[in-house]
Here is the input.
Amino acid sequence: MSIGNWDLQTMWIKYLITILLFYFFALLQSSFFIYFNVFGAVPNLIFVLYFTVIFFDKKNNYYGAIFYAMLAGLFLDIFSTYKIGLSIVLLVIIGILIKKIQSSLSETKDDYSFAHFAILFFASFLIYHLSLKACLYFLNPNFIALTLNFKFLAELMYSLFFGAVGFYICKNLLKLDKNNKQNKFF
Amino acid sequence: MSFTGLEFTNKKRRGWLKILLGLAILLGLVFALSVFSSQIKNSFFTLSSPLQKNFLDAGKSSGNWLGSLLSATSLQRENEDLKKENQKLLSKISTLQSIQEGNQALSTISATCQNQNFSTVMAGVTGLAGNEDILTINKGSDDGIKEGMPVIDQYNVLYGKILKVYKNFSQIMLISNKNSIINVQTQQNNAEIATGIDNATEAEPAKTKTETNSTINGIVKGSGGLSIYLDLVPVDDQINSGEILITSSLEQTFPKNILVGKIAEIQKNDQKPFQQAKIDPFFNLDNIENLFVITNYKNEKSQ
Here is the structure.
């Protein structure tokens, strides 16, 4: 019983920390990093956090993917000029797709290789931005130009850089966690 | 077997139901959020604005610090370049100021010379030999300067004549030079010569203001040290302190009606045939920048 309660408590703490992290990253992205732009682009830290969390989460945890997608989508839409909801829907779809891809891949020695992470990140980022622009263009053809420009590339690379940092942090945390669990087991 | 198959079908059906329900809830939530989008955003920004400001300030100061760190070398170079440019600009300002003064002088002299049909060459003063009353200017034979040419300023004040000419500069002998002698006359001035008004009677009415005094002729000699004096004025001639002296028509080197100076102190001795007077010259070397050499003056008498 106590173990179950502990697990529930840990889960709530984990979700609370995630919410606070998303909030913090949203503020960083919209206020701090505007002075560190590269060719006018700032890193999409919300997307980076969302992708990193989903990548390192359990393979079949679709509910978790939906929860993080809603959280990330909410913050992305709040800081955008369009109505709340679009990013949520897109990120839910992307999250489910990522989980499907992860589930369908065969078990390897190192499930968390950086190449694996980078390719998925690149693809997800591209799909998200293209889908977003397509939806906005569909809603208002005069408003959005459906183009991929140099600024988008700069944003992609900048975000991937932070993604890489997040990847190695999470990987090391996971290693520590595994070692602790093994020690407890023994 | 059939029971297992039925179980599987039920499980599948339940799975699909879950997905559909989840989808419906998700879409409903998204719809609700989009309806209250502006209120949610407004509340979020209201709550987050203090934090956002802190992040903004932190980003600004960090960005400036990093920027200065990264561009330290270029900042130093930029500073050096700016200093050099500043010096260049200061020197340019000084050049432009002297050009402006020259232009102003030119416009003044052109008005002066228009009536007398003079051609002038503007020259800048480069030096003064104070003990010999010699000025050096930056124009010479290449600019059409010749010895003996008169030199004035934009206010028609006489300075002297060209003493020596070189290729690119010349020397002017000032009128205060000991070797300088100029024929002058007093300038006719109707207002100053009205006399006897206070003592006028019926027998001896006062001379009217319209009556002009005859001009007095004399010579102005240089005494060195930038001083000049009036000489060879007959002792019977009436000269007054404050009277203005101009070059006379008897003068051969200089055109007539050029300003020379003002009578300061009269030295009269009845036992001598001529009276003298100290003159305050009009020429002033304190702020002089440009002088004008009259290049086309030819005395008719000398032709």
About this structure: DSSP finds six helices and no strands in chain A. Chain A touches chain B through 20 residues (CB under 8 Å). Chain A has one domain: 2-185.
